[in-house]
Amino acid sequence: MELVKTQQTPTITLQQAFKEQGFVVVRNFFSPQEMETLIKQIESPKSRQCLDQCLTKGNLRFYANLYRHNEYIQQFVAQPKIVHFLQPFIGSDFWVRWDQAVAKGPGAKTFPWHQDNAYNGFKQTHYQLWVALTAMTIENGGLWLVPGSHHQLLPHRQVNHHMVFKGEPKNPAFITAEIGDIVLFSSLTLHKTTPNTTEGIRWAYVIEYMSTHDYDPGIAPPFLRVARRGQPHAEFVQSYRGRNPINRLKYRLSRRDISRVLEWESR
Ligand SMILES: O=C(O)CCC(=O)C(=O)O
Question: Residue 111 Cα, ligand 1 centroid: separation in angstroms?
Answer without folding.
Answer: 6
